[in-house]
Amino acid sequence: MRRHWNPSGIAAPVAKYSHAVLVTGHHKLLAVSGQLGIAPDGSMPEGCEAQAKLIFAALDRCLAEAGMGRRHVIRLNTYLVDLADRPAFMAVRDAWVADPPPASTLVVVKELVRPEARVEVEILAAA
Fold first, then answer.
1. CA distances (Å), 64 to each of 59, 86, 89, 95, 99, in order?
2. What is the pLDDT of residues 28-68, one digit of tens each?
3. CATH no. for residue 37?
4. CA-to-CA distance for 48 and 85, rounded, in angstroms?
């Protein structure tokens, strides 16, 4: 069985996609779409650190609605626009990641869907 949703308390999707998809059966698998640092009111703060804090808060909400937590994250993919933002991002990310840490990929890209976006993160969780 699959359930698609967009948690309350975070910005609505910027295109036609669900913030999260939960697959249940013998196990639960949760795929969370790439999150940008967008506040619930649609604003986006400047700077990677502030955006990362909003991203991880949104990921927490997606996990919570699936009855999961950070310890269930098995994959974390990050897209940065500028490698110089890596230390600020990693400080926020490392404070958020539970033990044992998930598999992870960090890619530097030319740009994201919103020109002011500095970082995007997507996760996969399982329980």
1. 9, 27, 22, 18, 18
2. 999 999 999 999 999 999 999 999 999 999 999 999 999 99
3. 3.30.1330.40
4. 6
